[in-house]
């Protein structure tokens, strides 16, 4: 049973890492956009919009992951 709890923890930690990396990347793009102009700005803006969408998808995945881990632990512990 301890393995289930550890697995759930690893899964949740991995998802948190993904969300953190996406957030940090998005913040870095915002800082970059303040420093550049022209085609570099345009490219950063496009990437920022795509990253925003990706972060939204990651939040949806995070909700599913949370639910799956709870279900996995409920089945294991009754």
Question: Keywords, please?
Answer:
single chain, 78 residues, mainly alpha, Methane Monooxygenase Hydroxylase, Chain G, domain 1, 0% strand
Structure write-up:
- The chain has 78 residues and is mainly alpha-helical.
- Helix 1 packs antiparallel against helix 2.
- The model has no long low-confidence stretch (mean pLDDT 95).
- It has a single domain, classed as Up-down Bundle (Methane Monooxygenase Hydroxylase, Chain G, domain 1).
- It starts with a helix and ends with a helix.
- It has 2 helices and no strands.
Quick gist of this model?
This protein is an all-alpha fold. The protein has two helices and no strands.
The CATH topology name reads: Methane Monooxygenase Hydroxylase, Chain G, domain 1
Instruction: Give the percentage of residues in beta strands.
Output: under 5%
Shape: elongated
Distance between the termini: 11 Å
- Secondary structural class: mainly alpha
Amount of helix: over 70%
Which CATH architecture is right?
Up-down Bundle
Total beta strand runs: 0
Instruction: Give the topology string: H per helix, E per strand.
Output: HH
Oligomer: single chain
Number of domains: 1
Question: Whole-number average pLDDT?
Answer: 95
User: Can you summarize the main beta sheet?
Assistant: none
Number of helices: 2
Rg calc:
18 Å
Regarding CATH, which class? Mainly Alpha
Uncertain regions spanning at least 5 consecutive residues: none
């Amino acid at each position: 049973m301890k393995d289930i709890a550890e697995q759930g923890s690893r899964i949740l930690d991995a998802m948190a890492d993904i969300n953190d990396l996406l957030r940090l990347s998005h913040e870095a793009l915002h800082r970059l956009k303040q420093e550049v102009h022209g085609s570099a700005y345009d490219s950063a803006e496009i990437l920022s919009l795509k990253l925003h969408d990706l972060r939204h998808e990651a939040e949806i995945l995070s909700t599913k992951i949370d639910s799956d881990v709870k279900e996995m632990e409920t089945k294991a512990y009754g």
